[in-house]
Amino acid sequence: MRTTVLITLLLPATSLAHFGLNYPPWRGESLTPTNTTISQWAYPCANVQSNGTRTPWPLTGGSVEVDLHHPWTYMFINLGFGPVVTNFNVSLNPGGALVNETGNGTLCYNHVALPGPATLGLTVTDGMLATLQVVTVGQTGSALYNCADIIFTSNATLLSSDQCTNSTGVSAQAVSTATNSTGSGSSATASGSSSSSTSSSGAGVLSRPSGTFLTVAAGLLGLIAYL
Ligand SMILES: [Cu+2]
User: Fold this and answer.
1) According to the model, what pLDDT value does residue 213 have?
2) In sequence order, what are the residues at sequence separation of 6 or more whose Cβ sits closer than 8 angstroms to the Cβ of residue 52?
3) Exposed site from 22, 77, 147, 211, fewest CB < 10 Å?
């Protein structure tokens, strides 16, 4: 039974390796096996150049939807301002925390909020250009990159709740730092999963996946670690 499950899950995992950036639409297909100059391992944008298309994004931040093909990942959403971004120095991670994602499928944040002007060091206005960078990192430390070009637009809208959904079994937890308040010997901190939502509205966090899924996912990790 376990073997059957593993094989069934392994096929899509290998044929659809890495991840896709559904919204804002990525610069271009970066999962192509035919164009060898494109690689999601390549910083900062998988070697995919801007195609001239920019998605209007609200001034206070907008929706982000990714299609994740690995059993789990850490994820970062970054932003850089300007027409040609080389420095993605603004972290947009929901809640300001490291995102620990579990599951294989779509993860959607209805509203990824921009920091305020004091943090950004500038005021976002209509027509400003920027690029979003989504980074995922697995257990080997190798990061994967995808980018989407945007234009801040005052009347741009968020994805609707039916456009922005999480696949079954996909969830994201904010990794938080917890202090050991009772121990006397160790002052080590532990990183764990907080239970709070990391999305200001709509989708973004679903319940934890089942134990069975985690067991299967753990078994898969070794098999597809090289992907
Ligand atoms: Cu991969």
Assistant:
1) 40
2) none
3) 211
